[in-house]
């Protein structure tokens, strides 16, 4: 198979949720020397975007989204060690979670992988994380940054609820708070009182590094 055929296969098979084929093609891509980032950004993520677009149009339903998501997650498991390959010392601690009411985790996991690749120690609280769990995580792990993901317009208000709870617990000035997720914007992040926003994993890593550097300097 040529690299183009592998990428096209990854796009098509992710869309129909054929996890065994996606795993085989991901491995074939690695064997053929295709960069993990190329498979992610040119095949896997665009495929899920198309799944989302079909769902939005009412052509596809939750089960289709679910199996596509599972196929993508399988590929991520294979790519994770390569994307997160790092020999550097920890540059900082990042506490991460998807907010209460929201079960989406592929985007969050991708941000985690890229953060680990950049040398962060990542503590992942998982999905549906309530404010009290963020607070307990801050107290236990003393992170430099708290990251919150929300993927639904209905769960985005949890950012503000979490930030209020962190403030009430007297921890707000101890952490930088970053938010992100498909429907989130810089304007929304500002309204919630977050310190940072990123539209994608690469930008999240860049901003996280800048925040830690500023924290260490000041
Ligand atoms: Co759902 N879903 N889903 N879904 N799902 C979306 C998000 C949706 C946009 C689809 C659509 O209508 N086009 C839509 C939300 C609409 C809205 O509110 N604006 C939607 C809906 C409506 C729903 C349900 C309500 C459907 C229903 O039940 N009727 C339901 C909600 C369940 C719940 O959470 N309570 C639901 C369920 C599901 C599944 C469980 C079936 C499955 C999730 C599987 C999983 O995550 N384990 C699923 C999936 C797969 C999707 C789509 C198709 C793909 C999401 C994804 O993984 N994208 C999605 C459509 C889409 O996004 N186009 C959709 C790939 C991922 C790499 O991108 O998540 O954007 P993304 O992450 C990016 C950035 O956002 C950013 O970096 C990541 C990597 O670059 N980022 C951060 C993320 N977190 C960050 C944090 C940061 C910084 C950057 O700082 C801390």
List the helices and strands and how they pair.
Layout: H1 3-15, H2 19-31, H3 36-57, H4 62-83, E1 92-98, H5 106-117, E2 120-124, H6 131-141, E3 145-149, H7 158-168, E4 176-180, H8 186-192, E5 196-197, H9 201-217
Helix pairs in contact: 1-2, 1-3, 2-4, 3-4, 4-5, 5-9, 6-7
Bound molecules: CO-5-methoxybenzimidazolylcobamide.
CO-5-methoxybenzimidazolylcobamide (B1M) binds at residues 45, 48-49, 51-52, 55-56, 62, 65-66, 68-69, 101-108, 110-111, 147-149, 151-153, 178-183, 198, 200-201, 204.
Please count the helical segments. 9
The CATH superfamily of the largest domain is identified as Cobalamin-binding domain
Number of beta-strand segments = 5
Spell out the helices and strands N to C. Answer: HHHHEHEHEHEHEH
Q: Structural class given helices, strands, pairing?
A: alpha/beta
Question: CA-to-CA gap between the ends?
Answer: 53 Å
- Strand percentage lies at 5-15%
The residue-averaged pLDDT reads 94
The residue ranges in which pLDDT falls below 50 over 5 or more consecutive positions are none
Summed up, the domain count is 2
| Shape label | globular
What is the CATH C level class of the largest domain, in words?
Alpha Beta
Tell me the CATH architecture of the largest domain: 3-Layer(aba) Sandwich
**CATH topology of the largest domain, anyone?**
Rossmann fold
The biggest sheet amounts to:
5 strands, parallel
Oligomer: single chain
Bound molecules: CO-5-methoxybenzimidazolylcobamide
Rg result? 18 Å
**Major beta sheet, strand line-up:** 2-1-3-4-5
Helix content bin: 55-70%
